[in-house]
Inverse folding.
């Protein structure tokens, strides 16, 4: 008996020890797997990879002369309150950057929750990652005293300071007069090189336009008419998948896809939550305008005709992207960044781009002959969110130094171009270019996870590189843009006399007022104020009613019920606060 | 009878000898009491948030006191009233359906003669219990989508002409949730009834057979009365859980269109408490839920006592 017990005890000890050892092993294994991954890519890229090592070691003329040893590298964590693909541990470029800067950042992203839920949970726990981009919930972090002020570090680090002018930096100041985050997007160095329409639009597949003989499409009626006619004649794809003429996303915050089109249809720019009537500087609610009613009536009509996807109201973002990726969706209303990066890569990998599945934007308005402002020329500074460093970060100095280093041209090239020789080549004029193979490789999910590391939510530049020749980011290199275009897209651009996406949508190039964009204020409203409560409730009502009125059999009565539910939220409280902010911004600019 | 003797013992003075004899038991019991205090009672201190305008910056000690302000906001909010309705409706629906299905299933299973058949059916049927809701909702979402298996089946059998979009019909949401619960929990819940059935004296069945009772009569006069105490206790415990109608299912299956029937109190707490970082409001809603749960369980217990049934306290 006693003997048995002792054996049992021994066994348990052994087991737990082996478990522990198992854990240890795992860590070790990970190391080795990365190593093998390294070698395998080296193999595939054969001699070019050898060149790379030479260039990385030899081309050390910039600030980062020092190469950090493995034990000197600091590991930081980052949480982004937006979904994004995660990269592998031991990602090659991440390691290169770690060696050069002495910092490695493990990025995690939002999964399955909304941004504010995730950030709310983090605040409630009181344990923050070192870096955070709270998306719409940045103010919550500020309110919880979780962020480190940037002010002294901006002065200290030239690359960070260079990001914005003093005036622009000032806009980030919170009510205590300090800067806590810095938006990383839509910020150009030197000449602006934008070739894409990185905004919202009604999108349509090029093959539909080609089929229709490249007609001029300016209104909703013309748009749906073309979709209807095309779908009637081509009800399925080649493989038998039924064509979905039009779909729209209603999930969570992405319901802007159905919600905010009325502002654009009326010819206004993307203020996001309201229209700013520039004639008398008044806030206008785009939810209740005649245009809104017309737009939703049209959607209702098309839904009842079977043109709109029956699943539009219940689909999740993943399902939506999966649908678009099959090439069966002819058109939708969405922001470029919401679908294009994923979907275009899939099209490239599957060859659907050659069949004309790529989307081009159309600048629709409610009446024929109006100016549209779907495209925002130049940079938009969104002060509502950005990268922040939290009070949990133990080495704030190193964190800011890392942000500074990331903006170093050499590191910036690593982030957005990759490794010279492997991901891009340089011609005799210093122009960066990719071979078709490299382009293919860069759109491969597997490769992106194991090799590329853009630190995409850290400060970055658009526009022209400091060498004055190249673009800061691959997507903006004009030569690359044209070389990467599939045949049908090129033909489409030619047919409309367009050079790129912004030409295609043909928005007027009007300078935005100093108040633009108003969403940077409404995004940060909290339920502290009556306007904030109204804004939250309006959101809930619209989430429920917009799909409902589209699906209604009797539009008019559904619209009336929607309007009474909407009025019950006291939207006037919200509008009053927006007006106040608009007046403040206008006054501040003068 | 046994209850009476217990009472008598509790009433009597506890002497040193008793303590010594039950030393180990007392230590174990104390551990659980400590556990309860730490994890159930100390967090209740946080309820104070419901009466403040709590901000993480100022903390519990320095946030402004607003009295019943948060509760007033709650009960004047139409959404909250709807959310209570949804929670109760789904809770009751879930309770009734899973409860009956489990008993029915246990009895049916008990009637299977082949031990192998019985064991395998039982094992297979309780496996879904171990799936997390995220997987179950994933399966449901796929099965019920317009291109899913259910719609294909219905269309191919010519029961319907065009696929039904199940998740855009508010009327179908509660039944879908109830169905999901039944599918997931029936096998698991049946285990306890099966155990109760096993403890019924086989002599009773034998003598009943001799008296000429068939299967039906045996179920009616022996099995059901035999598991009656178990049924009552479980019913009582579950009534206290009615307001825990669920969070994951509704959260994962719901969408904007059917929000007004799918949101439960827990989701409301999440959206206002965590997302809008109005922790006070979230706490107030949570307190309301706990109070209702306590009231429900006390009422149920009282009714059980009045009807002379088994009860919790």
């Amino acid at each position: 008996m006693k003997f048995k017990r002792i054996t049992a005890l021994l066994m348990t000890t052994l087991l737990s020890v082996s478990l522990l050892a198992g854990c240890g092993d795992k860590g070790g294994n990970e190391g080795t797997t990365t190593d093998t991954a390294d070698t395998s890519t080296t193999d595939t890229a054969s001699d070019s990879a050898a060149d790379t090592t030479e260039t990385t070691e030899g081309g050390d003329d910039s600030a980062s002369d020092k190469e950090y040893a493995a034990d000197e590298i600091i590991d930081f964590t980052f949480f982004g309150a937006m979904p994004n693909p995660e990269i592998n541990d031991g990602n090659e470029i991440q390691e290169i950057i770690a060696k050069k800067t002495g910092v490695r950042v493990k990025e995690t992203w939002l999964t399955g929750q909304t941004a504010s839920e995730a950030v709310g949970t983090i605040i409630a726990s009181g344990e923050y990652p070192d870096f955070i981009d709270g998306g719409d919930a940045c103010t919550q972090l500020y309110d919880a005293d979780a962020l480190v002020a940037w002010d002294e570090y901006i002065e200290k680090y030239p690359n960070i300071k260079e990001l914005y002018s003093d005036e622009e930096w000032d806009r980030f100041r919170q009510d205590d007069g300090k800067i806590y985050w810095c938006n990383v997007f839509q910020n150009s160095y030197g000449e602006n090189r934008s070739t894409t329409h990185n905004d919202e639009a009604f999108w349509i597949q090029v093959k539909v336009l080609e089929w229709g003989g490249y007609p001029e499409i300016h209104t909703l009626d013309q748009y749906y008419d073309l979709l209807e006619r095309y779908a009637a004649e081509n009800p399925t794809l080649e493989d038998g998948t039924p064509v979905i003429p039009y779909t729209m996303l209603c999930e969570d915050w992405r319901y802007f896809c159905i919600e905010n089109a009325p502002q654009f249809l009326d010819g206004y720019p993307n203020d996001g939550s309201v229209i700013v009537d520039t004639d008398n500087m008044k806030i206008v609610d785009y939810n209740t305008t005649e245009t809104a009613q017309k737009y939703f009536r049209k959607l209702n009509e098309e839904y009842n005709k079977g043109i709109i996807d029956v699943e539009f109201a219940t689909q999740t973002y993943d399902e939506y992207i999966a649908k678009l990726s099959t090439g069966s969706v002819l058109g939708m209303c969405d922001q470029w960044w919401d679908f294009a990066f994923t979907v275009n890569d899939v099209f490239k990998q599957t060859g659907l781009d050659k069949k004309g599945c790529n989307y081009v934007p159309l600048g629709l308005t409610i009446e024929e002959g109006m100016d549209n402002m779907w495209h925002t020329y130049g940079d938009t500074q969104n002060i509502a969110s950005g990268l922040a460093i939290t009070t949990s970060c133990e080495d704030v100095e190193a964190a800011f130094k890392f942000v500074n280093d990331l903006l170093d041209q050499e590191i910036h090239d690593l982030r957005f171009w990759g490794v010279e020789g492997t991901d891009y080549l340089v011609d005799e004029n210093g122009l960066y270019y990719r071979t078709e193979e490299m382009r293919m490789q860069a759109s491969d999910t597997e490769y992106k996870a194991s090799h590329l590391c853009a630190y995409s939510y850290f400060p970055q530049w658009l526009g022209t590189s400091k060498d004055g020749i190249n673009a800061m980011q691959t997507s903006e290199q004009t030569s690359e843009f044209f070389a990467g275009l599939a045949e049908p897209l090129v033909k489409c651009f030619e047919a409309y006399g367009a050079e790129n996406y912004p030409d295609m949508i043909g928005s007027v190039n009007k300078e935005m007022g100093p108040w633009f964009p108003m969403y940077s204020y409404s995004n940060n409203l909290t339920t502290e104020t009556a306007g904030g409560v109204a804004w939250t409730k309006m959101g809930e009502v619209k989430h429920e009613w917009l799909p409902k009125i589209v699906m209604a059999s009797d539009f008019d009565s559904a619209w009336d019920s929607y309007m009474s539910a909407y009025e019950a939220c006291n939207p006037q409280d919200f509008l009053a606060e927006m007006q106040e902010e608009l007046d403040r911004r206008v006054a501040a600019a003068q | 009878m046994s209850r009476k003797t217990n009472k008598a013992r509790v009433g009597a003075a506890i002497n040193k000898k008793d303590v010594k004899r039950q030393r180990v038991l007392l230590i174990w019991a104390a551990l659980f009491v400590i556990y309860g205090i730490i994890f159930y009672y100390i967090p209740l201190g946080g309820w104070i948030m419901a009466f403040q305008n709590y901000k993480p910056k100022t903390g519990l000690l320095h946030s402004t006191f607003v009295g019943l302000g948060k509760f007033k906001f709650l009960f004047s909010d139409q959404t909250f009233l709807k959310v209570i309705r949804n929670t109760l409706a789904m809770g009751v629906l879930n309770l009734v359906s899973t409860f009956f299905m489990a008993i029915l299933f246990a009895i049916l299973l008990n009637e299977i003669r082949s031990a192998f058949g019985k064991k395998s059916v039982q094992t297979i049927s309780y496996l879904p219990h171990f799936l997390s809701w995220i997987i179950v909702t994933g399966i449901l979402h796929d099965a019920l989508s317009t291109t899913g298996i259910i719609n294909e089946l219905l269309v191919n059998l010519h029961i319907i002409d065009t696929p039904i979009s199940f998740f855009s019909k508010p009327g179908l949401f509660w039944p879908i949730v109830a169905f999901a619960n039944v599918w997931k929990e029936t096998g698991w819940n049946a285990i306890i009834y099966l155990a109760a059935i096993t403890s019924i004296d086989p002599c009773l069945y034998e003598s009943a057979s001799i008296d000429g009772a068939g299967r039906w009569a045996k179920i009616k006069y022996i099995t059901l009365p035999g598991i009656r105490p178990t049924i009552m206790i479980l019913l009582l415990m579950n009534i206290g859980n009615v307001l825990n109608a669920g969070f994951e299912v509704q959260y994962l299956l719901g969408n904007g269109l059917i929000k007004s029937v799918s949101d439960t109190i827990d989701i409301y707490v999440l959206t206002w408490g965590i997302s809008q970082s109005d922790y006070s409001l979230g706490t107030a809603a949570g307190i309301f839920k706990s109070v209702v749960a306590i009231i429900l369980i006390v009422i149920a217990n009282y009714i059980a006592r009045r009807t002379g049934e088994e009860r919790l306290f």
User: Anything to note?
Assistant: The first strand of chain A starts at residue 74 and ends at 80. Chain A is about 50% helix and 10% strand.
